[in-house]
Amino acid sequence: MKRYRFVVLPIGHVPYKNWNYKQICLFLKMEKWIEKYRGINPGAILDRELKKKKLKQAAFARDISLPAQTLNAIIKGKRKMTPEVAFKIDNALGLEESTMAILQAIYDTTLVKHKIGSINHPDISRLRRILFWDTDFDKIDWQRQKKAVIRRVWERGNEDEKKEIQRFYGIDSTYAVINEIKPTRPEPSFLRQKSS
Question: Could you tell me the pTM of the whole model?
Answer without folding.
Answer: 0.51
